[in-house]
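Bug #77: duplicate submission created two jobs. Keeping one. Sequence:
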Amino acid sequence: MAVIRFPIRLLGLALLAIALVLLADDLAAMDWSSFSGFTPQLLGDLFYATIPEWLNGAQSYIQRSISPYLWDPVIQTILLWWDWAAIGGLGLILAVIARRPKVKIDAAAVETAG
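Kept job's structure:
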């Protein structure tokens, strides 16, 4: 189980690092003189700016092969989330799921050993 846990945790931490970079980019674009203009980039805009053919292909594949209801209410809503929040949330979930298990110490064994 530890062999599977490490790459998942590493991916989660990498996604958290990417989320921090995206948040810093959004904060750098903010108008600090009037403390306004905080418009974080949406996840769908990020995907469309980086890999537009993948987004269009995924939409058509999911709507035709899986279910049109999966795209419209579910994935479309996720694509409208802030990019750093969505990626950071996924990274946090992966990092927490793959964390190390707590070590249980038997108090009776410690007393007899010491």
